[in-house]
Specification:
- With 246 residues, the chain is mostly helical.
- Helix content is 71%, strand content 0%.
- The protein starts with 7 loop residues before the first helix and ends with a helix.
- About 7% of the residues have low confidence.
- The protein is globular and about 55 Å long.
- It contains eight helices and no strands.
- The protein has a domain of 135 residues.
- InterPro entries: MADF-dom (IPR006578).
- This is MADF domain-containing protein.
Length: 246
């Protein structure tokens, strides 16, 4: 079967397989940065799909295509909203599997936001360090009479204040509002994620139990067991999707 001509049922099966292997898309997963785990997950998906001539490269390409299609459809929806179109004219995608990718895509947005804020924080910290170093160098030079005229002026203002003349104290530079807001949003998002993790359900307990049992097996047996479990979940997942869509 060609990967470009899949039926809805086959596509849904692939998405279900992809979603269960969180190390491929969930950046908060402990296995997300483990190359061996990710490679094993891709191999497992290829085996679970059981399609002739559909291997590791095909799995990677299919994931890339699904994510790209989702992004394009989401952009069309956003563009139609920004154009000022009424509710009746907002773009509605006719791709039936789109909703199944929401969890993955939203996690991708969180990951990009987290990495962006982390980079901004690092840049801000580097700038603050440079400013502190510059201030120390300037202070040392001032003691030797080599500081810049602006520093001399500040020193005179300080001397005047000691003799009774009031001087306006220098204020620390304010952190850019957008960075402060971004850090606040990240903290709030992290608090929500932690709150969800604390609300453990019987399904969470069962999932951990299955994971513990798989870890005690050999890689081959664990992958075989995982494939059997995934097949059952996929079949029920497709049935559940049809029931909710009808």
């Amino acid at each position: 079967m060609s990967a470009n001509k899949w039926s809805l049922e086959t596509t849904l099966k692939f998405i279900q397989c992809y979603k269960i292997h969180e190390c491929l898309w969930n950046f908060s997963s402990p296995d997300y940065k483990l190359k061996d785990k990710r490679n094993a997950a891709i191999i497992a998906i290829a085996d679970e799909m059981n399609i002739n001539d559909f291997g590791v490269t095909d799995v990677k390409n299919k994931i890339k295509n699904l994510r790209s299609t989702y992004s394009q459809e989401l952009k069309k929806i956003d563009d139609s909203k920004k154009s000022g179109a009424g509710l009746d004219n907002v773009y509605v995608s006719n791709i039936k599997w789109l909703k199944e990718m929401e969890d993955i895509f939203m996690n991708d947005v969180k990951r990009k936001t987290y990495e962006s804020i982390k980079l901004e924080s690092q840049v801000l910290g580097h700038q603050n360090a440079e400013q502190q170093q510059s201030s120390l160098q300037c202070a040392a030079s001032s003691a030797q009479g080599n500081c810049s005229q602006s520093t001399v002026t500040d020193a005179n203002a300080t001397n005047n204040s000691s003799t009774g003349t009031s001087a306006t104290p220098s204020r620390p530079k304010k952190r850019p509002r957008d960075i402060v807001k971004a850090i606040h949003d990240l903290k709030r998002m992290n608090d929500k994620l932690n709150a969800k993790e604390e609300e453990e359900t019987p399904f969470d307990v069962f999932g951990k139990s299955v994971a513990m049992q798989l870890k005690k097996m050999t890689i081959e047996n664990a992958l075989r067991a995982q494939q059997e479990i995934q097949c059952i979940l996929t079949e029920i997942g497709i049935t559940d999707y049809r029931e909710r869509s009808s």
